[in-house]
Every structure is written in C-alpha cells, then in structure tokens.
Amino acid sequence: QLFDSYQILKNMPAGQYRLEWQGFYRNGNIQNAWQRHTKGTEDYAEVYASDASTPMLSLFDASAPYTYNPYTYPDNVATAEEAFAAGHYAQHLDFELSETSDLRIGLRHFTPSVYDWTCFDNFRLIYVNDANDIDKVLSDESKHPSDAIYDLSGRKVKPTTQGLYIRNGKLFFVK
User: Strand 15-26's sheet: what is its strand order?
Assistant: First the structure.
C-alpha cells in the first residue's frame, strides 16, 4: 500500500450519502503518464467512503479542456486550483450506511509509480434520507441562504439540542 489518507467521522447516522470532490491523479511523470493514458494502461488512485469506492479522474480526463501539445494541463497546486475554480475534475460517490456507525472517507493508491501526483479539494458530504432525493437536495441547495441550518430530514431549524445538522451542504455537530 503506497498511500491511504483518510478521515474518520464518528457516529454517522444510517442512510444514503453523496460524497463530492474535485481532483485528479497523474500516473507517473508527465511523459510516462500521457503514454500510459493514451495506451489505456494508466493506473488510478481511488476515493472511498465506507465500502464504496471509485477511481479518481485522470489528469488527462477528456472532460477537462486541456491539451498535451502544447501542454496546458495543471502541473502544480496553483494551476490545479484554477482548474477546480473553473469547475473541472468534479466527481461524486453515492453510498449507503446500513446502520449508525463511524464512517471512513479517504483516498488511496496501491501500485508503485515514480513521480505520480494527485491533487484534490472541495470535499463535501451530503446526507439524504432517500437515494432519489440526492438530486433534489443538490438543486435546492442553491435556493437556501448560506447561513440556514437544516436537520437530517432537510427541515430548516434553529438547533436547540445536541445533534447533527447541515449548513452549506456540510454536516456539523452541535454539542
């Protein structure tokens, strides 16, 4: 195992979740990674939550508006930040927790590669009661004031008791 970077969220309620982020993985130095990508032998890092996982997008993913010649792909943290600000390399992973438990969210890679590189940012964890409500929650989110607080059922509340709440699409705990 080359790397496994993760965070454990304690005592998360059972239900459907969506993990969102922006990021990419480059499998080796620029030339070797491009060659692997064009030959279809590229290796990937993966993002995981609970028992679900998905490959991180390749730096050379076709959805990004960059070119190899001349080379315009992000090549450092500043240009990766510009790509993320422009909305590129957006990904998500839907998963379910069958019971209230700790949740491990992370990024890992198992295959050795010289000069591989990954860059990621803007992680969000969204809780929904029903998998069919994920898109509704995401579309409704832009209509809510940024300081509004919601319970895990999606009702607007003013927290008066200890528990998990949602603000700006992110879970937080009130003690």
Answer: 90-97, 15-26, 117-128
Contact present, 131 and 94 (Cβ < 8 Å): yes
Query: Which own/partner pairs from 27-34 qualify as long-range (CB within 8 Å, at least 24 positions apart)?
Result: 27/58, 27/113, 27/116, 28/113, 28/114, 28/115, 28/116, 29/114, 29/115, 30/71, 30/73, 30/75, 32/114, 32/115, 33/59, 33/60, 33/116, 34/60, 34/68
Rg (CA), the chain: 18
Q: Which helix (H) or strand (E) holds 137?
A: helix 134-141
pLDDT in tens, the chain (175 residues): 488 999 999 999 999 999 999 999 999 999 999 999 999 999 999 999 999 999 999 999 999 999 999 999 999 999 999 999 999 999 999 999 999 999 999 999 988 778 889 999 999 999 876 545 545 544 454 554 556 777 666 667 777 777 777 777 677 777 6
Interatomic CA distance for residues 68 and 36, integer angstroms: 13
Classified as helix, coil or strand, 140 is helix
- Ordered DSSP codes for 72-114: -S--SHHHHHHHHHTTTTEEEEEEEESSSEEEEEEEEE-S--T
| E strand or H helix that includes residue 136 | helix 134-141
